[in-house]
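SAMPLE LOG
Freezer: B-3
Tube label: C17
Construct: single chain, 405 aa
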Amino acid sequence: MARNIVDTLEPRKTLPATLLGVSLGLAAGSVFAASVSALAGYFARRMVTPEERRTGNALIRAIVTDEEGQIWLHFTRGADTADPGACMLIAEDEACVARLSAPRPVPEKPRLVARKLEQIYRGSLDGVRRGYLSGAIYEHPQDAGFDAEDITLDLAVGPGPAWLIPGTTARNLWVIGVHGRGAKRTESIRALPVLTELGATVLLMSYRNDGLAPNAVDGRYGLGDTEWQDVETAVRYARNHGATQIMLLGWSMGGAIALQTADRSALAAHIDSLMLVGPVINWVDVISHQARLNKIPQTVGRFAGWLLTNRAGRWATGLAAPVNLKRLNWVDRAAELHHPTLLMHSKDDQFVPYGPSLKLAALRPDLVTLRVFSGAGHTREPNSDPQGFAAAIREFLTRRIEAQR
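STRUCTURE (predicted):
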């Protein structure tokens, strides 16, 4: 029947087979190129766009009360829910914000993991079924037992809220906490026990686009290429208030920001050293890793990197100016590192691989001290091994204090 229909089509004005093949190939190539371009644009935009709210990937299967009246949340076992150490539950729409204990197995239910409810900071568990688990386990320094003064930093983008925890025996030693992408100043509270033990003054700052400080004009992260200017303001504040020795404590992207501050700030000479947790040493490596993790072809990942670094990519990223990824690559720029640096990085970090930290430490053993952790997810080093984390900071800070005497 099909043959008969074809035979009766008149007139038969068709393309030659070879030309038809080329045309189809070009069309398919155009569709493929458009798909690659769209995916790369989406990937690049996600890298630099602050998330208005976190996706709640931690599924709560049950909320139970034990014989002692303690409340336990049972989660589907996963990388986040089973990550060692305490954590904070941030329910969808922040209906509940609470601190949870380290995970425990649920008897006879290997697919579940249990965490005890230690404190509700805000909201209620009523109706909560899923949330995001954060490594920042405190909402305020007071939750960890520390008094803090609310201050405001006069950032280039506007007023930036900050917490100031005055020092004791080493008041002129200041540590400035620089949080990571998608986090807030609460991230550094976990370091307060060891920092205050050494008598340091601690400044926990906010910076552009973090949900506390005002947004930049484009509302986009600079991945460290712009945020360092806000940290420079914090360094200036410290200098104006008696600091004679200043250290930057950077987490994840905050590590990239701290490195840029120490490199590009007019006040770099007043920065003594850096302490970096799960730091981004090379964004190209992170982009490549994230592409693999999300099953995105490497060609798409490379194109996403190109979009971030070129003005022509602004249509996709929304950046006011391109990000200089070469300037953010401290493996290639290892010879330009000038500050003593402590790197604390878990070999099980699934978001920012520790490979570049290893390379930088190997290239600059004269300046870089590396402390490798295991079992911890991204920036969860103080959660999974609080003693080891505190010891690494204590030893490094003690050496830096002695060096200034």
